[in-house]
Specification:
Length: about 55
């Protein structure tokens, strides 16, 4: 894409892989799944406490 295309992609992307290893996408997904579950548990815990008080 050239210099201009990669600059545009970096500005609009949520996640940027700066290496030539697409396997890092799989690793990022494996890391994010437990974090999303933990976030859901934490959010529900906090909402339950707010309702209790």
């Amino acid at each position: 894409m050239g210099g201009l295309g990669s600059d545009v992609a970096i500005e609009t992307a949520d996640v940027i892989i700066q290496t030539d290893q697409p396997s890092k996408v799989v690793r990022a997904i494996k890391i994010s799944v437990p974090l999303v579950k933990l976030f859901g548990k934490t959010l529900s815990w906090h909402l339950a406490l707010k309702l209790l008080f």
